[in-house]
Amino acid sequence: MLIDKEIKAAKPQNDKIHKLYDQAGLHIIVHTNGGKYWRTSERDAFPHIGHMAIKKIKPIDILEILQKVEAKGFHSASHRLLFVCSNVFRYAVATQKVDSDICRDLKGALTPHKVKHFAAITDARKIGALLKILDDYTGIIQVTCALRLSPLLFVRPSELRLAEWCQINFDKKPWEYFIVKTQADHIVPLSNQAIAILKELHKISGHGRYVFPSRKSDDKPMGENSVLTALRRRGIAKEEMSAHGFRAMARTVLDEEMDYPAHLLEHQLAHKVKDANGTSYNRTKHLVKRHENDAIME
After folding, report:
1. How would you label 172-200 residue by residue, b for 16+ Cβ within 10 Å and e otherwise?
2. Cα separation values, 220 from 28, 119, 214, Å
3. Domain 124-297, CATH homologous superfamily name and number
4. How far is 154 from 173, CA to CA, in rounded Å?
5. Is 65 exposed, middle or buried (0-12, 13-18, 19+ CB in 10 A)?
6. I want to staple 206 with a disulfide (CB 3.0 to 4.6 A). Which of 133, 202, 236, 261 is the partner?
7. One-character DSSP codes across 35-72
8. For the structural domain made of 4-109, what CATH number should be given?
């Protein structure tokens, strides 16, 4: 996730417009004159409000856009679009462009989003075959490494593809980053196998910002469907396994097959966990034991 310090420090590069990428489709365009503008890849919003000053945008303007998306049957997309718009307004509040996030009162106006479970292989015998397929994959190096890291780290796919080298410590072996979904810092202990894969990739992309850069530009992360596409190319059906499914796979194996403590799994998955005193997720909790968990997954 982009932080205010990074945004303020961004400068034009070689008299060309360039982009800084955030999550959920957001990016900032840095113009040659030093101006910075939030943009999103969502095509539904900006044809209607992109020409408007942000102070002039009203809740009804956002709602009408969301309702048009819902009318097409894209209920999940409408919630995602609301999230994107809310992020823009929250940044505008922080930079004193507007007084409040006008999107915060619109959540109840949308059709409730039905939770859809991601396809995942959880049978121990099939998992072995899947891992063999991943090890044999010979696509571009960043996708190959992402595939091999997915069952070791079991983070959200968006978190993996947006990983930055500045977040990874090869000596102490943690990966530290901020999770937009839970609004919390998170630490992922890295196993020896994960470190080896990252060091291999560092030789290729270590000069840039992103661990998994796009094939077209080092300044952009790889596409959000890169891992998913690689799975399909290896003949793994969408009903069988998804990029997000590595999380369910790891949780099932560690919980049901290895009887690993549930609270450690929740911490590793970056779910909010409350202790006996009602304290929410503590990112530094159980790091030693969670590191042992990663060693088990090797």
Report:
1. ebbbebbbbeeeeebbbbbbeebbebbee
2. 12, 28, 5
3. Intergrase catalytic core (1.10.443.10)
4. 16
5. buried
6. 202
7. -EEEEES-TTTHHHHTTS-GGG--HHHHHHHHHHHHHT
8. 1.10.150
Which residues make beta-bridge pairs with 27?
Answer: 21, 39
Domain range summary for the chain, segments of one domain joined by +: 4-109, 124-297
Q: Quick one: angle between helices 192-205 and 141-153, nearest 10? A: 160
pLDDT digits (tens, 9 = 90+) for 255-284: 777 777 777 777 777 776 555 444 444 444
Q: Could you give the dihedral angle defined by the CA atoms of residues 63, 66, 67 and 72, in that order, rounded to the nearest 10 degrees?
A: 170
Q: How many CB atoms lie within 10 A of CB 67?
A: 13
pLDDT category at 2 given cuts 50, 70, 90 is low
**Topology agreement, domain 4-109 and domain 124-297:** no
- Residue 213 phi/psi, 5-degree rounding, is -75, 160
Contacts of 157 (CB under 8 A, 6+ apart): 150, 224, 227, 228, 243, 244
Enter the tokens of residue 249. Answer: 């796979």
pLDDT(59) > 90 = yes
Residue 106 burial by CB count (10 A; 0-12/13-18/19+): exposed, middle or buried?
Answer: middle
